[in-house]
Amino acid sequence: MSPNLQKLLSGAALACTAILLGACGGGGGGGTPTGTLAVHMTDAPACGFDHVYVTVNQVRVNMSSAAGDNDGGWSDITLATPQKIDLLTLTNGVLTTLGQTTLPAGQYQQVRLVLASNQGNALANSVVVSGTTTEVALATPSATQSGLKIIRPFTVEANSTVDLVLDFNACKSVVQQGNGGYALKPVITATPTTISGTIDGFVAPAEAGATVYAEQNGKVISGTVADSTGHFTFAPLVASASNGNYDVVIAQSGVSSGVITSVPVVVGATTHVSTAAQPIALPASTMNTVSGTVTASADASLRALQTTTTGTYEIASANANLTTGAYTMSLPVNPPLVGAYSNALPISLTAATTSAGQYTIEADAASGATQSSAVNVSSGSQTVNFSF
Question: How would residue 79 be classed by pLDDT, with cut points 50, 70 and 90?
Fold first, then answer.
């Protein structure tokens, strides 16, 4: 596979970006056993944007999680031609290949994605706000120099294959600035496909475009957007045997949230939570907002959590404006519909009436400090401020 080969696989739309790193069998003989690292990219939905562009120059890997920019041990994939990619065209399993390199067999700890820098009016990295047509610069100061850093151990065995998917959550990674510009605040996870499987399902066609999350303990692991047929796919997800089951959370403006709990993932297999013939249909709901400000210097992200008798789930999220600290989220007033996974479809969902309109708004500062506040949107939109 050539370094600049791009290959699109089947899929649809979402709020995460993934980079697939495939270490293919190789080496042997009397020298050091080696494998081949192939790099691909995919994505998920991005809140309020029609396009999120990034231009990739290079991918770097190192066996040390503590390796600095100028330390030894780096293996690089430098693209012959930088690839400008619209992350929002790479969702629901769609991938694009960036390149490959040969690696010594062993365990690797660190991956870095190096982006090109914006040069004058030539925007390597940019966004297009929904409803507009103009590209606005996306500031990426650290990414253009040392690269976006991801710590996730993965092993390249001699004469074997391992794939690592880096999931880049575009929705949580783009932050607005007070001057109307945008900055990249990367949220990236990594999943070895050798220990992973897939979850898929369908929402009703009327709910096409719904955001769907795979969560664990109230935290989003992966996200996607249901396509025009209502189909959604999460791939890859670390198998339940080593990582636990997942909760599938469906969120869309104007309808109640839906939650399917304890969905298992099996290596190399697909777990179906619904079918095209029997999709998940959610009732209409009034939406109210929670908005406010966070101390701007906190560089905070916010999550709207909803708790039922079966657990706590993230329903929405937002980044505070880097200059003003302002944020806003739109939330359903009606209760979420919740059901436990069963391989006998369809899965029955029941309204968690005691949770109607009730949320916990959590503010997470870049320093690691966290604050939270309970809020009830049943009677109207609410204001919640945080001071760090």
Answer: confident
CB contact set of 371 (below 8 Å; sequence gap of 6+)? 362, 363, 386, 388
Q: Evaluate whether 325 touches 296 at the Cβ level (below 8 Å).
A: yes
- The secondary element (H helix, E strand) that includes residue 331 is strand 326-332
Are the C-beta atoms of 214 and 223 separated by less than 8 Å? yes
Instruction: Give ∠ CA 195-197-199 in degrees, rounded to 5.
Output: 150
Whether 26 and 162 map to the same domain: the answer is: yes
pLDDT single digits (tens) 255-311: 999 999 999 999 999 999 999 999 999 999 999 999 999 999 999 999 999 999 999
Q: What domain count does the chain have?
A: 3
Which helix H or strand E contains 171, and what residues bound it? helix 170-173
**Phi (first) and psi of residue 128, to 5 degrees:** -120, 115
Q: What pLDDT does 28 receive?
A: 47
DSSP reduced 3-state for 347: coil
Q: How many CA atoms lie within 13 A of 35 on its CB side?
A: 21
| Tokens read off for 246 | 């997942």
- Given this model, what pLDDT does residue 98 score? 72
Rounded to whole angstroms, the Cα distance separating 63 from 75 reads: 9
CATH number at residue 298: 2.60.40.1120
- Highest mean pLDDT, choosing among 2-16, 70-84, 141-155, 292-306: 292-306
Q: Is residue 200 part of a domain?
A: yes
d(CA 186, CA 184): 6
Q: Which residues pair with 375 in a beta bridge?
A: 359
- pLDDT computed for residue 59 by the predictor: 87
Cis peptide before 45 (omega within 30 of 0): no
Q: CA dist 7 to 12, 20, 182, 213, 228, Å?
A: 15, 12, 29, 25, 22
- CATH number, residue 259: 2.60.40.10
Task: Classify the C-alpha dihedral 189-192-196-202 as positive or negative.
Answer: positive
CA neighbor of 330 nearest in space, from 322, 338, 318: 318
Kindly report which listed range (181-190, 301-310, 321-330) carries the lowest average pLDDT score. Answer: 181-190
For the beta carbon of residue 148, count every other beta carbon within 10 angstroms: 22
Domain encompassing residue 245 = 195-272
Residue with tokens 């979420």: 336
CB 341 within 8 A of CB 262: yes
